[in-house]
């Protein structure tokens, strides 16, 4: 399991009623929504900005997402989603994510997201943007 100390970036939120299921816990699909929103805010904090569709003819495509559920997350619970870049490849980037209770150090859920930078015309992998690599290396050492 990931530890809170493994992350420099956290996105805080509170679980809304619309995000829970009949058991009173966060419905499983919402974990990926939390991860996606935290990842967007992580990029903003780096800072690195990318637009929809990529202005340079390339864009990130998700090729893998995993979620592990360690403990229930409930309605109105304040949580923080930690994000870090775990690996930079030639054309891919791997992010580690973890959800923590706002007041706790134990990960309630962990996940992994893998993106591939893709040429949107040729529909094939292309090198990660240098600006992205520089922004990540300035904050982390994946």
UniProtKB/TrEMBL annotation:
InterPro entries to which the protein is assigned, alphabetical: 4-hydroxybenzoyl-CoA_TE, HotDog_dom_sf, Thioestr_dom, YbgC/YbaW
Keyword Hydrolase: yes
GO MF annotation list: fatty acyl-CoA hydrolase activity
Pfam families membership: 4HBT
Signal peptide coordinates: none
Sequence intervals crossing the membrane: none
Record key words, sorted: Hydrolase
All residue ranges annotated as the Thioesterase domain in the record: 23-105
Keyword Lyase: no
Family in the record: Belongs to the 4-hydroxybenzoyl-CoA thioesterase family.
Protein name: Acyl-CoA thioester hydrolase
Protein species of origin: Herbihabitans rhizosphaerae
Organism ancestry: Bacteria, Bacillati, Actinomycetota, Actinomycetes, Pseudonocardiales
């Amino acid at each position: 399991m990931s530890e809170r100390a493994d992350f420099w970036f956290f996105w805080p939120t509170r679980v809304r009623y619309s995000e829970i299921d009949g058991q009173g816990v966060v419905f499983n699909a919402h974990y990926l929504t939390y991860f996606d929103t935290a990842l967007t805010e992580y990029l903003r904090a780096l800072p690195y900005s990318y637009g929809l569709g990529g202005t340079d003819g390339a864009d990130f495509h998700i090729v893998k997402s995993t979620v592990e559920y360690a403990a229930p997350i409930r309605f109105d619970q304040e949580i923080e989603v930690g994000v870090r870049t775990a690996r930079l490849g030639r054309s891919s980037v791997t992010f580690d994510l973890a959800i923590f209770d706002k007041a706790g150090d134990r990960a309630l859920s962990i996940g992994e997201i893998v993106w591939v930078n893709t040429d949107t015309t040729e529909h094939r992998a292309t090198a990660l943007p240098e600006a992205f690599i520089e922004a990540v290396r300035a904050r982390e050492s994946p």
